[in-house]
Design brief:
By secondary structure, the chain is mainly alpha-helical. It has one domain. Strands 1-2 form a two-stranded parallel sheet.
């Protein structure tokens, strides 16, 4: 994979599709069974965690690459919290 030696000539705007930030307490989750991990409080904790972790991991790594080249201001991630598909209809 090719990575440029100098990131100063790159500008990156990363647009997220929305991150659902419904929280679950560790005490509650410790007692969940399989069903509660799949469906709980109107959400799907397991699926949400996987998708949010994936987006966060990519954001963290790209940000770290730019910061390591002293070009942290050249990377911007916009992620709207609690965005639902029908908010704009």
């Amino acid at each position: 994979m090719f990575f440029p030696q100098d990131f100063s000539d790159l500008l990156v705007l990363s647009l997220g599709t929305g991150q659902h930030e419904m929280g679950y307490s560790a005490d509650d989750a410790a007692n969940w069974g399989v069903i509660q991990w799949l469906v709980n409080k109107g959400g799907a904790p397991l699926i949400s965690s996987v998708y949010n972790a994936s987006a966060d991991l990519v954001d963290y790594n790209i940000s770290a690459m730019f910061q390591s080249q002293q070009c942290g201001v050249n990377y911007l991630r916009i992620q709207v919290p609690n965005l639902y598909p029908f908010d704009f209809v």
